[in-house]
Backbone:
């Protein structure tokens, strides 16, 4: 229980520390890093450290993982993967460029093959400013070496893995990964389970695009799918649909207020109906969500 509590507190702190690439050494000393492993089905797992959720498929030929968390998690992540069969993954797919999903590239990149959308390679080569922080460019070996533009298939341990581009949503270089046999999808940061999402407008993201992409993704999913969110607990199709509905409804409310000529401050003051309260209890509070939607729909 104590562990769970400190994990929860840590998540809250990490929210504000997110993507602080080289600045968390003080933080590292204070908090012990743990990696929680959850078996999803057959040979597919979810691993949770400090940043974004990690998906893993374990095969005869090694391990493939989706995202690789912060650098401070790498050793613990490697130890957890070793328990599953191999300390170093054969393949790593980056769902997008943010450090809480890609910093592990620096640890694994000399041995693993890194796959991502072509825009991820570009962003990691010259990272944009995020939360007022300029992250250092990744070392060449930590960059994706296989990139794609629309969609690719990867055949691994008898499963066809679909790697699909989600345009201009959370960022402009997001990928969803679909394990067909296992019926498991990793949605990256398009999906904050039960919470308002962070939408990185400065990295080409948009709220409109994110909602459209969730629609595209749910249309591809079988009813009994298991969904790994970028952040939050493992989800079902129903969870994704209620998330989608919440985003659509709250965006509608904010858009109506904008059409009435209300200012951002006025809309924030008016807030959102009580039933969406839990959605504002994560990294992105209700005010931040209103501001993101406002800015996204003001942009032309
Ligand atoms: Zn992200």
Residues:
């Amino acid at each position: 229980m104590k562990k769970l509590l400190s994990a929860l507190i840590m998540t809250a702190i990490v929210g504000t520390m997110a993507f602080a690439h080289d600045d968390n050494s003080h933080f590292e000393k204070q908090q012990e890093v743990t990696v929680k492993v959850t078996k999803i089905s057959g040979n597919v797992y979810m691993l949770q450290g400090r940043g974004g959720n990690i998906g893993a498929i374990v095969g005869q030929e090694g391990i493939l993982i989706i995202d690789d968390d912060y650098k401070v998690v790498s050793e613990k992540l490697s130890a957890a993967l070793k328990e599953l069969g191999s300390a170093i993954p054969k393949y790593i797919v980056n769902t997008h460029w943010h450090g809480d999903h890609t910093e592990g590239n620096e640890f694994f990149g000399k041995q693993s093959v890194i796959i991502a959308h072509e825009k991820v390679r570009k962003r990691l080569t010259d990272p944009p400013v995020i939360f007022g922080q300029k992250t250092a460019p990744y070392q060449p070996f930590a960059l994706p070496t296989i990139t794609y533009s629309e969609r690719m298939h990867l055949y691994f341990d008898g499963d066809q893995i679909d790697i699909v581009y989600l345009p201009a949503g959370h960022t402009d270089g997001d990928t969803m990964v679909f394990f067909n046999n296992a019926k498991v999808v990793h949605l990256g940061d398009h999906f904050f389970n039960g919470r308002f999402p962070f939408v990185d407008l400065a990295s080409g993201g948009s709220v409109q695009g994110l909602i459209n992409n969730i629609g595209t993704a749910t249309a591809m999913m079988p009813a009994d799918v298991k969904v790994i969110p970028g952040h939050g607990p493992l989800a079902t199709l129903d969870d994704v649909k209620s998330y989608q509905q919440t985003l659509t409804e709250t965006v509608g409310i904010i858009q109506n207020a904008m059409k009435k000529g209300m200012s951002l401050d006025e809309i924030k003051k008016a807030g959102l109906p009580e039933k969406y309260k839990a959605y504002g209890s994560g990294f992105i509070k209700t005010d931040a969500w209103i501001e993101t939607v406002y800015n996204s729909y003001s942009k032309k």
In short: Residues 2-247 form a domain with the Metallo-beta-lactamase; Chain A fold (CATH 3.60.15.10). Residues 96, 98, 101, 170, 189 surround zinc ion (CB under 6 Å). The CA atoms of residues 70 and 103 lie 5 Å apart.
